[in-house]
Amino acid sequence: MRPGYKADVEFENFCVRFMDEPKIQLPAVGNHPAHPDKYVVQIEVAAQSLQDDYELRVRIFYCPSWPYRGAANPDLAALFRLPKLYQNEPVVVVDRFGGTEAATLCALTTLVQQLSRDQHVDVYIYAKF
């Protein structure tokens, strides 16, 4: 771990405080058992305003064993279940390529939610970005 990694970081108008960093084991899906090396790191931080009495907790998900392209992957199905746990809270998803795979996960998760809510999806609205 880097020195100062968990130290508070102050900016002009806000401060970011480290809260917690648990590993979340990806659950078993169907006939595929859970693997001990398949996990997601959840980094929880709090962004606190220095001028107002306001604090916003944010969860950052990092998946070192991101399920890369290929055949159907049970780990990918487990990843789709994570946003349901944090529906009403800010979430940041990070991948090793600078956002392309995280953006795909966010778009697909949103489309699945839209399909269950509206019984149809508008793929273009998410694909155009």
Automatic annotation (TrEMBL):
Domain Tyrosine-protein phosphatase: residue ranges: 31-125
Pfam families (alphabetical): Y_phosphatase
Matching SUPFAM superfamilies: (Phosphotyrosine protein) phosphatases II
Domain of life, source organism: Eukaryota
Any one Gene Ontology molecular-function term assigned to this protein's record: protein tyrosine phosphatase activity
InterPro entries linked to this entry: Prot-tyrosine_phosphatase-like, PTP_cat
Name of the molecule in the record: Tyrosine-protein phosphatase domain-containing protein
